[in-house]
Design goal:
Order of helices and strands: EEEEEEEEEEE
Bound molecules: copper (II) ion
Largest sheet: 11 strands, mixed
CATH superfamily: PCu(A)C copper chaperone
Shape: globular
Number of domains: 1
Structural class: mainly beta
Oligomer: single chain
Distance between the termini: 25 Å
Number of helices: 0
Strand content: over 45%
CATH topology: Immunoglobulin-like
């Protein structure tokens, strides 16, 4: 079956090369991290007036032997960027800010509507369909990852 997955302009940039320490004995010139984390289906939604905010979603795949812990997110397109999850309270699902999201070792974390997601407030201006924006994910023990993604619907 072909997946409904939309191929996006997705660029992974390993930032701050001076923070990256290559493992001793590494015999290839590629980043030691390049195969540990894969990011698929990165997309953002259009902003919702009147309290201009938005959200972004993606699937993070961790091929490594250690959990990857996301501790933050930032973008030049919003002053406030948070990690959110959904919790049930009084029979209602509500979103709540969390300090961390975990991409389990040899597993994946799917950020999607109605579940864990990235949330943005105080946008620079409306996020419109087709806008490309950069998000940088911050990890506890892993180089930050900048993803270029597109605003969809
Ligand atoms: Cu939220």
């Amino acid at each position: 079956m072909s997946s409904l997955r939309v191929l996006l302009l997705l660029t992974l940039v390993i930032a701050c090369s001076d923070e990256i320490v290559s493992p001793v004995g590494s015999d290839d010139s590629q980043s030691p991290y390049s195969e540990v984390l894969e990011i698929e289906d990165a997309r953002a939604r259009t902003s919702r007036p009147p309290h201009a905010n938005s959200a972004a979603f993606m699937t993070l795949i961790n091929n490594g032997n250690e959990d990857l812990v996301i501790v933050g997110v930032k973008t030049p397109r919003a002053k406030v960027a948070e990690l959110h999850t959904m919790l049930q309270e009084d029979d209602k699902m509500k979103m709540r800010r969390v300090e961390r999201l975990v991409v389990p070792s040899k597993g994946e974390l799917e950020l999607k509507p109605g579940a864990d997601h990235l949330m943005f407030f105080e946008l620079d201006k409306a996020w419109r369909i087709g806008d490309k924006l950069k998000l940088t994910l911050l990890f506890a023990k892993y180089p930050e990852q900048t993803v270029t993604l597109e605003v969809e619907k």
